[in-house]
User: Fold these one by one.
Assistant:
Number 1:
Amino acid sequence: MLYIIDTANIEKIKHCIEYYPIAGVTTNPTIISKEHTDFIDLIRKIEDVIGNDRMFHIQLTGDTAEQMMEEAKALRNVIGDNLYVKIPVGEEGLKATMKLHKEGFHITETAIFTQQQALMAAMAGADFVAPYVNRLDNIVSDGVNVVGEIASMFQRYGLKTKVLAASFKTAEQVHKISMVGGHAVTVNPEILESLIYHPLTMYAIDDFKADWESVYGKKTIMDMVKEKEQ
Ligand code: G3P
């Protein structure tokens, strides 16, 4: 499973990559606009923070394939080889995907709501497809099932394209993606933190500390090692 963070907030990205095994960052125009700052300065800062070993997914905003290709080339000059251009699925998007794939770009086809959109994007050359789980659940569809069927189709056809499930509101949705063969999830920092939180874990850690202190007081393992060395 690849854990990716769905934010453009620098402080949150710094925190997440320090404490979690994060494979990259995803953004979209909504996420970028929340930061109310210069777009190019912002993506340069994010790239500095995450380094070029992590993926950086940035969505194109052009309406035509030609505009998208121009944007993709300009962004690759700014970001480098870890850039994944996010392209909304559609005729212009597929045209751009086929051409950019031939030119060696990494591509994430986004705004995916159906299995056939995902299959078409994979055949066009997308590296990732991003189905929107919670938005599917919101329209009485079943986001997890859609992801599971896409993952099965890719396996059945021997496609290398990976499923990057997106749009989550609960830790349970994320967990279910890992049970149906999703390859990657992109989640906001709050959902990421909720994936490791459990009150019984907190109680267990508090109990360990109390039992230790009842015998050794505030002495740490290192205090004891140093005492023996003297
Ligand atoms: O990466 C796509 C994702 O940001 C959409 O999430 O919460 O707006 O449905 P949401």
Number 2:
Amino acid sequence: MSDLSNKHIVLGLSGGIACYKAAELCRALVKAGATVQVVMTEAAGQFMTPVTMQALSNRTVYTSQWDARELNNMAHINLSREAHAIVVAPASADFMAKLLHGRADDLLSLMCLARPIERVPLIVAPAMNREMWTHPATQRNMAQLKADGVHVLDVGQGEQACGETGDGRMLEPEEILEDLVALFQPKVLAGQHVLVTAGPTYEAMDPVRGITNLSSGKMGFAIARAAREAGAAVTLVAGPVLLPTPRGVHRVDVRSALDMQMAVAQNVDAASVFVATAAVADWRVADVAGQKIKKDDSGQLPQLAFVENPDILAEVSQSPRAQSGALYCVGFAAESHDLLNHATAKRARKGVPLLVGNIGPATFGLDDNALLLVDEQGSQALEHASKLTLARQLVAEIARRLKAS
Ligand code: CTP
């Protein structure tokens, strides 16, 4: 199942140079499984031809409320009734002002006004020059649109087509897609604050060398994304990985186990759920050399001594908030064999209500996995699937347990 299977999206384009990104967005929506109906304003037609959008969406484009193809001549009604969501990208300053006033003098604004407001969400991706974006009129319009229930996406920052630099660029197509996919996910963690650790840690030996492990961080990042999609505020404490931050997630980058311990301590009081997916190094080097350790001709090998790292999950699960039930703790176990026995033993040792086992060597670095959930009731398998699919299932399982407790 793709993220937008069985979803019909009306993609509206108003006038702006960011129309070129709407072509990419259309492709991305189709690739994610959606059917896409494009509606363009007259101004959008100055930047992008309907021919391009027709080819990408595989449907003829609507540009006029007087389109005679509609037997009842009510394109604004017909198109909005079919949609699971309307996405206006780019939304120009002028189009936002029109929406705000409920004006309806072209097909796109008319259709937005005529949409069944309870059933068809309206998402707008603003795109404009930085002065236009920060102008009090635009900011006022944006605030009022949000109050009216419109999902106004944030804007990107950087170099603009006009040559100026600042806020107001339209989000990238992949970012808009991620926000749209999130909109359709059930909000089972609304009101919760989820703290996730992810990735490996890196324990330095000297300024240029260190000890780490093969954890890619993908499972933890997928859980952070799924928790955010489910409506939670999410803080992600990430070891050294090059993965993009999921939309809307607050990320804290760390390197060593001690850094991770400190970042968790700083963020755990605000959390109601703690999910420890990080592959924290069990030991660190006792005396990190201040300078690079050099080979010499003596034939002597360097001698490394280790000290044990703190067990972050065990510490958190023993805290008064976790013990009182104000903080729900979930641990992970990466095993190579005998998953149920190891996971059951580890759940008891860590003192957590839920322990998630997986076979480490079978999943490190890959995009899919299989999980075994162990709690006081017993165990439950989540069958082989993409890490994001499993993360969404795990989030649903956590939400179910929170509700029951
Ligand atoms: N964990 C942690 N801090 C550590 C070590 C582990 O928070 N210093 C967390 C991991 O994020 C994971 C769980 O504890 O949720 C894994 O437990 P752990 O005992 O580290 O597993 P293994 O290292 O696989 O244990 P063992 O070597 O005994 O199999």
Number 3:
Amino acid sequence: MKVLVATDKPFAKVAVDGIRKEIEAAGYELALLEKYGEKAKLLEAVADADAIIIRSDIIDAEVLDAAKQLKIVVRAGAGYDNVDLEAATAHNVCVMNTPGQNSNAVAELAFGLMVMAVRNMYNGTSGSELKGKKLGIHAYGNVGRNVARIAKGFGMDIYAYDAFCPKEVIEADGVKSVASAEELYSTCDVVSLHIPATAETKNSINHALVGRMPKGGLLVNTARKEVINEAELIQLMEERADLKYMTDIMPAAHETFMAKFAGRYFSTPKKMGAQTAEANINAGIAAAKQIVGFLKDGCEKFRVNKK
Ligand code: 3PG
């Protein structure tokens, strides 16, 4: 059996070593394809793979067609919007994610971006503090919960909205549950996005919603760029010079944001919320273990596509 690690944005070496150990201990072979750039290289590498570990790498019908022996794809991470689930099911391929394994890393970066924004991008001028500010956590999943935990240390007043998580679960963490996204944005000085990119959420962070934020509002996005209605956010930030947008997922309109919103917009060049050795080790080794469990025992825990 051959397990391919196909990561255009590579894991830390220590994580790859850990993945190799798991795979080889199970008697399988590990192949590594990093920084491949072009899809053609991925198509070639998947040809004899029985299992694939990926990050944000695109697994579409063409890749699945090329992977004739493929049985399982594990997205080492949370969001699996990069995998065509229907095509995987049609190809009889199991798709899993590794929920929770990289969520602390993403949550810590959200605070890195928040501090950078309230300290005026570290430009030496007098900024403000997070303590006492109202923080809105948009979606209370694994990352949202870590954000709440860290926000307590900062002394923030914490609110959350999640369409699927029961109010009792949110409030058990000492977080105020609000009834709608609208209420969250109207209430909070800072909103941190932790929603997945789905048909319902794409473009949903728009003028009407973000426009509800109080004066000096800060939007932090470590989720997905697709959830932002970029044209409307640009329009809103043109109308309101007090709003700031910080992200580690570069918008399609990055150049426009840069040109128009100097000092109140920042994006990292690459998505880097989960780019820590710890997150790579946790998610990578979990992915390797899930593959071994699936191939040896048929374990389908964390399967995200239909059979
Ligand atoms: C995730 O969905 O797990 C995060 O967005 C991290 O993605 P990455 O593995 O591409 O950094």
Number 4:
Amino acid sequence: MPDGLIVKALSGFYYVLPQEAGGPGGQVVQCRAKGIFKKRGITPLVGDRVTFTPTSHGEGTVDEIKPRISELIRPPVANMELALLVFAVAEPSPSLLLLDKFLVHTENAGLKAAICLTKTDLLAEPGMEDTAARLDEWEAAYREIGYDVLRCSAKTGEGIDRVLEYLAGRMTVFAGQSGVGKSSLLNRLIPGLDLATNEISEKLGRGRHTTRHVELIAHPAGGCIADTPGFSQLDFAGIDAERLGSCFVEIGRMAGDCKFRGCLHLSEPSCAVIAAAESGAIRRSRYEHYLQFLKEITDKKRRY
Ligand code: GDP
Ligand code: ZN
């Protein structure tokens, strides 16, 4: 049975790109999943590595799903190695709250995350000095926690080569609010892709449809990018209060020094995290977002 990679899932069909020794090859095969998956409550996902059996008319059946190295529920995509969290330097201004929310989800999913700041051309405009200084400070803070930060402009092409290099050979999922420039960036990264951007759909007099499905796109440096409708409804389902701390990596690292095991770093005595937030060793905004998410999680638990 040939090996394949699910590149698209739509209306009960799975589109499987055959994988030959050394990489993808051949035509995408439209497959159904074997009945047994449904019985076991398993849904094949975009990004799944599978074996499939070709049937008639160039169609096929997915027989087996190989073990996943990562799994995201929203967007539903498997085996991603990297999440590129895309923020614009302006228009819209980046939100650290949203960034930290993304980071909690990627850490929870065991996914490496990197931050990509787009629209850097806007920083050259008059009156952007304060924004530029603020971004430098943010970049340094997140680098210190351990996240790579890339900067680019889809408009001028600045930094695009570095982004491409960074994504080479990796399975990457893009995440970011609508309007930050994900489609423009993808179009820059992948010649000939020609995704509709907001601008273009405005010109055509209709809004771009936002409920696009997840699709894997091979990129020229090797690897694939999952173009997704976005991490739209991020809630903390599946993340409990005890686990949240470990999703803030610097808090997780410090939690071992708290006096009590299972310390939630709220007001417990001899809490290393509270002390670090007070001394500035942990960034204040990170600790505040931690508290805010913790409250969301515990409030929800109380309601149900
Ligand atoms: P998406 O919703 O994240 O896919 O964002 P789009 O790619 O559709 O871009 C949203 C808007 O930002 C469009 O009007 C783009 O022209 C604009 N845009 C995208 N990238 C850049 C950039 O690098 N610089 C500037 N100045 N504008 C950009
Ligand atoms: Zn603590």
